[in-house]
Amino acid sequence: MTVAEEDRQAWQLLDEPQEWQVFSQTTPGKPECWSSSVVFEGMHCAACAITIEQALKAIPGVQEVQVSAASHRGRITWKESVTRPSQWMAAAAQAGYRALPANDAHAHERRRHEARQMVWRVSVAGMCMMQVMMYATPSYVTAPGEISPNLIGLLRWASWVLSLPVMVFSCKPFFVNAWRDLKQRQISMDLPVALGMLIAFVVSSLGTFDPEGLFGSEVYFDSLTMFVFFLLTGRWLELRMRDKTAGALEAVMNRLPDQVVRQVGDQWQRVSIRKLVVGDVIEVLPGQAFAGDGVLIAGHSEVDEALLTGESRPLTRGVGDAVIAGSHNLSGRVLVRITQVGAATRFAQIVNLMESASVTKPQVAVLADRWAKPFLWGVLIAASASAWYGWQQSPAHAVMVAVSVLVVTCPCALSLATPSAMLAAAGALARGGVLVRRLSALQRLTEVDTVIFDKTGTLTRDDFTVSSVHVRDGVSPQQAVFLASALARQSIHPVSRALVAYARQTMPAQDAALELQGFEEKSGQGLQARLQRDGQTMDLRLGSAAFCGAPALSSDQLQVSLADAHGWMATFELNEALREDAAAIVKSLQDKGLDVRILSGDGVAAVQRVARALHVESARGLCTPQDKLQQLQTLQKQGHRVAMVGDGLNDGPVLSGADVSFALGQAVPLAQAQADFVLLGGQLRDLLNAWQHSTLTMKIVRQNLVWALVYNLACIPLALLGMLPAWAAGLGMATSSLVVVLNALRLSTNAKQKNS
Amino acid sequence: MDILYLLIPLSVVLVFFILAGLWWAIQRGQFEDIEAEGERILRND
C-alpha cells in the first residue's frame, strides 16, 4: 500500500505548525482551536457531506465540522492539544474521501484531473452509446424472423462488448460511491442509480448469452448506455458549473504570488511568500499582485483593487500610500514595505470570510438533507414493490420498470436547488464588493421591513464641511475664510482640509499662495504663523476656541476659530458631510416600502439635522449600544424584521441582534465584523445591490424547489406504471438537475452585467 | 449479407480506435480551454 503510505507522509508534513497555518486560522476567543479549510475529493451529494461530518466528528479533539455539498469545501475546527491534521485527514480517507488543504495549489491540479477524467468518461459513454444504438436499430425496424438468428446473436454480442467499457469504466464512480456507502451503512443518491445500471446490465447479458433463461431474449443495452450517457453528461455539466461558481472564490484565493523579490542589504533575492515577514521591502513590477499589506516607499503606480473592494476603477497610489495584498499593480515599478503578512492581511480575512460563508447551510438546504435519506429508502421500496408486482407477467419487463423507478426518483435536483442558487449569488455579490458571511442572510433579507442606520461613518463620511461663518465687526466673512484657508493649506488635519475645500468653493479666484513665516502646528490646539500681505504683517492663529481666545458659541457643532494679534476674528461651524449617495439610497429604500430609522450615539441636534436632510422621520441621538439593542428588540417584538446598517465596529452587539446586518467595511478589521453582509468598498449603493440580488436569489430558489418537486412527483407515478423507459428516466434526471443549476447560474451573470 | 459477419466486429474495433484517439486528445488538455486558442492571435506575447 505505497499510495496510502505516501498519503500518510504527506499528512504528517501538515502536522508542522507553519504548514497547517497555511490553510488554518485561529478561532477568536478560543485559544488552541484552529479552523482549517479543506477540499474533499469524491463527494457527490448531500448524503456524502453528512457521512464526512459524522466520520470527522468521531475523532477526539475535532470540535466542529461543516461540509458543503455544493462546493465540496469543508471547515474543520480542531484542538491543537488533542489532535493534528494528519489524524482527521486519515479519518476522512477511511470514510472514502480525500481531504486536501484548500490553499494548496495541489487542489487546483486535482480538480483539473477530475475534470479531465469526467470528460473521458462522458466520451466513452457517448461513443459506445452511438454504436450500440446502431446495433439495436435492426431489431426495431424489422419484422420478427426477417433477420437470421445468427446475425441477431452477433449484433447482441457486439452491443455487449461495447457496453462493457461503459459499465466498467464510465459507471465506475457510481459503483464506487454506492459500494462505499453500503460499507458505511449509509444510503446516498448513487445507490439507486448504481443498482439500476447493474440490474439492466445483468438482465441484458443474460438475454444475450442465455436467451432461453428466466428473463427471455430481450436486451436493453441501448437504454443502458443511453441513460449512462445522459447521467454522466448531467454530472459533467454540473461539475463545470460548480467550478465556475467556485471560480469566484478561487479567483480571489489564487491572487497572491508564490514568490516575491525581497531586498536584503543592497541585493535583491527571490523568496517564497511564506518567508516574507513584516518590515521586509519587496519589489513589485507592473502586472504583479502585492504579496502582503504594505506601504509604498518608492515609485508611483495605479492599482486594481476590484476583487477586494468592488471598486472597478484603477486607484492612484504614491509614496506613503497603503496597498493591500491581492490587489494588482498596474502601471509602474514600486517598492513596498510590508506591514502585514499571511493571515493578518485584509486579503486573508476576506478569503476566510468567503470560505466560512460557502459552507454554512441555509435553512432550506438543511431541510432537504434531512428528507433525502427517508426518501431514498422509499425509492428502493417502491422499486422492489413494482418489480414484485409485475414479476408474474414478465420478469424482464418488471425488472426494467424497477430500473426506471430507481433512476428517475433520484432527488439530485432537490438537493441542489437551494445551495447552488445561494452560492452563485454569493459569488456574484463578492465580485461586486459585497461579502456574504451567512448564506441564510440572503433569505432573511427578503423578509425585512425596517432598516436602522447608524449615523457616523454610515450615513456620513469621516470628513467635514463648513456650514456657517461668524465674524467680529469689521471683518468680512470672505476675508476670514481667505486667511483661515491660507493657514489651513499647510496642514492635513480633516478640519483644515474642510476649510481649504470651502475656500476653493466660495472664492476660486483668490487661490493665490501667500507667504507664511514661522508656521507651527500645535497638536490638539491649532496652527499659528506670520503672514505677509499687502505690506502688512499679521500674526494668525487657527484652532480651538481656547487657543484663539474666542467667545463660546452656543452650538453643539464642531467649531474652529481664527484670531489675529487683536484677538478673535472669526469662528467657523463645521458639519459632518453626508455621503453623496445617502439621500438616494434612503429614498429608494423608502420607495420599497421600508421603514427607515436612524439610531446614533451622537448629539441629538446633529442626528436631527441628518434626519431632516434625508427625510427620515424617526431618528434618535445619544443612544448607547444598549439603547440601540433595546430599540431593536422592541421593534422585533412588535413583529418587525429589522436590518441594521453600521460601521461594524462599535455596533457589534446591535448588528448581531438584528435579523440581517450590514457592515461598511472600509476601515473595519474584517475578522471582528459581526455582520451578515460586509460592504467591502464602503459604498452605500452596494446595499441596494445586495437587496435586489437577494430578492432575485429567493425567486430562483423557489423556482428551483418547485421545479424539482414537480419533476419528481410527475415522474414517479409514470415510472411505477411502466410508462417511462430507462433511457427516458436517465434523460429526465439529468435534465432536471441541469435545469436547476442553469437557473441558479443566471444569478452570477446578472450581477456581472450590472457591474460592467 | 455474409459480409456483415466481418463488418460488425470491424465496427467494434473501429470504436476502440476512435476512443484511443479521444483519450489522447483529452489527456493533452485539448478540451479544457476552448476559447483560448481562438484568442491567442489577438495577444501580443
What's the shape of chain A? Answer: elongated
How much β-strand is present in the residues of chain A? 15-25%
Structural class assignment of chain B: mainly alpha
| Spatial sequence of strands, sheet with the most strands of chain A | 15-27-26-25-16-23-24
**What structural category arises from helix and sheet content of chain A?**
alpha+beta
CATH homology-level superfamily of the domain at 461-578 in chain A: Calcium-transporting ATPase, cytoplasmic domain N
- Radius of gyration of chain B from the CA trace? 19 Å
Total domain count of chain B: 1
Q: What's the gyration radius of chain A in Å?
A: 34 Å
Oligomer: heterodimer
Poorly predicted tracts of residues of chain A = 751-756
Helix content of chain B: 55-70%
Low-confidence blocks of residues of chain B = none
Strand tally of chain B is 0
Overall pLDDT metric of chain A: 79
Report the span from N to C terminus of chain B: 59 Å
Give the H and E element order of chain B: HH
CATH fold topology of the domain at 461-578 in chain A:
Calcium-transporting ATPase, cytoplasmic domain N
Tell me what the structure shows.
The complex is a heterodimer of chains A (756) and B (45). Chain A contains 25 helices and 27 strands. Chain A has 756 residues and is an alpha+beta fold. Among the domains of chain A are: 2-103, Alpha-Beta Plaits (2-Layer Sandwich); 259-291 and 293-340, Distorted Sandwich (Calcium-transporting ATPase, cytoplasmic transduction domain A), CATH 2.70.150; 461-578, 3-Layer(aba) Sandwich (Calcium-transporting ATPase, cytoplasmic domain N), CATH 3.40.1110. In chain A, helix 23 (652-657) links the parallel strand 25 and strand 26 (660-664). Chain B contains two helices and no strands. The radius of gyration of chain B is 19 Å and the shape is rod-shaped. Chain B starts with a helix and ends in a 6-residue tail after the last helix. Chains A and B meet through helix 5 and helix 6 of A and helix 1 of B.
